[in-house]
Description:
With 405 residues, the protein is an alpha+beta fold.
Amino acid sequence: MILSVYRNRILLSTLLFFVFFSTSFQEVSAATMMQPMTDANLKGIDVSHWNGTIDWVQVKSSGVAFAYVKASEGTTYTDTMFATNVKGAHAANLPVGAYHYARPSAPFNQDQPKQEAQYFVNAMKNNGLSDFGNIMPVLDLEEPATTGTLTSDELAQWARIFVDTTKSLTNRQVLLYTGAWFVQQYNDFGGKLADLPVWIAAYTRYGYTQPPACGGWTQWTAWQYSDQGTVPGVPSQVDLDAGPTTIDALKGNLTVSTAPSTPTNLTATVTTTSAALSWNASTNASSYKLSRNGNVVYQGAATSYTDNGLTSNTSYTYSLTAVNTIGESNPASLSVTTAGSQTVSQVTMDKTQYYSSSYAKITTTVKDSNGNVLSGAAISLSILTPKGSTTTVSGKTDATGKWDL
């Protein structure tokens, strides 16, 4: 894939971080790193016209078990060696798939990823991959290289639209290729792409013995561990990849034939600035799309999402659909009103009873003017004991607006 000087700087900085903190690396590696490769992982390469004319029989004989070849870029470019590489890999009986180099640009426009996906599909159809490859097609996402062009949420939405469009046109899962540096630069995409299989780039020459966990991913489907490899039959340096342990795990054939069911039990716990939503899993769903007042705020496989940055004392309407390759479910809807600015209008106390000179537990609930419970509300109670003395106790309400004495 295309590399940049900026990427190299990011990776070098990450390497220095590992050097400085090497004394604690063993303690945190299990939680912060994806799995290492083993001898059981399939060997792969990925190529484009930059690699020249390839002898695919030699490549196959060297032990390479799969290959990805560049198909397209943006909406106007088809790689000049795409058809030749596909034909050569097929002749050598080497499983081959195609990748598309994405060109997201500002301002965000949801039609752009749809157009790039259609161009990618047409490039495959017109250049010897009418079956869309022996292994699943790939979205190569490593631009914009400089932040500020698109937000993390916009880039995640761009990728999601491309993936969903490609899946609907091919009935194949889409593998997401991206660099660890890029994921981290875009704030892990907010975790919104973590349900997709990932092909992660993190090079051993920068000190990586396994890729860092990022973007919500803890396991890779493929790992591009070198951009300076040598393979018999390839006349130039070539990207080296580790794949899964079986080629079937790379095929990505989708067999879902039924639209997902409507999500149930959509509920929310609100504060002054957030709504923590959750729902039950839907039959046949691969992911979920949550919209607030008509704007998508979450897409992913999780069955919960906390929507932050809301305005206090404001009403919002959420719409949730379950998604798979066949389509979307009917929407589940929920209207909520955020809490007011911590203005208490209702305080209730439950069960203040005395037994043998001691009193039972007091449960205090605090709500705002909208009837929403207030979490973190400070409470101070003056309690008259059976002996006539006064005791003052204080505390704060929990997430449900309650405080137990």
